[in-house]
Amino acid sequence: MVWDPQQYLKFSGHRLRPALDLLMRIPDLGPREVADLGAGAGNVTKLIRERWPSAAVTGVEGSAEMVAAGRKAAPDVEWSHEDLGHWRPAKQYDVVYSNAALHWLPDHAALFPSVMEKVAPGGMLAVQMPRNFLAPSHVLIGETALSGPWRSKVEHLVTPPPVEGPAFYHDLLAPLAQNIDIWETEYLQVLEGDNPVKEWTKGTWLTRYLDVLEGDEKAAFEAAYGMRVAKAYPKNAAGQTLFPFRRLFMVAQRKG
């Protein structure tokens, strides 16, 4: 995927809220080394740096475009441009934080124990992932992919939801953790503008499909999805669009 920081940050306030909710649930244990996995454009990484100013903070990000934006937003952070799926640090971290990133990686049964092993004994793993993949905003992307002349090019992207339920992650982390806090929150996001749910997904999940297509076909796919999603999320009497969005959180402390 080619990430567009400006598109992603169109809804930066709504995207920032769960990141802050996660950050504030991490106990203040005075970490010396912190890693932000999937650091994106750095708007959250700089808040991590502000919370623990004496810690060495590393932002790990696979998109060159996002790394460039992150270096501007958080110049006092060490930036590592690497694929999260191949993250193999030589050291452990007191806090490993990841906001809205790990759902892009496959095989969570192997991934989460592997990431937990990069946490120092007594340290914290803090993860937030969207779990909105069965909502119309995401289901209609798949329906659009399977019902147009572009089907052969994009149908391989129509896959089951990438995030499991809370109990799945509890059972994965329990053998390695002394404390686990897992919860879900559904945010009722009030969006403004023309077809804002399309614009929201265009910053994340829809990008996977648009990257595969070109020219008129790409524009036609976006328009076809736009029509579907506008009907699913009509404006209210005040001209606003209500967009419920569910997210899964977990904070786990590594056994000492």
UniProtKB/TrEMBL annotation:
Signal peptide: none
Coiled coil (UniProt feature): none
Domain (Methyltransferase) ranges: 34-123
InterPro entries: Methyltransf_25, SAM-dependent_MTases_sf, Trans_acon_MeTrfase_C
Top-rank lineage group of the source organism: Bacteria
Organism field: Bradyrhizobium cytisi
A GO MF label: trans-aconitate 2-methyltransferase activity
Sorted UniProt keywords: Methyltransferase, Transferase
Record protein name field: Methyltransferase domain-containing protein
Gene Ontology BP term (one): methylation
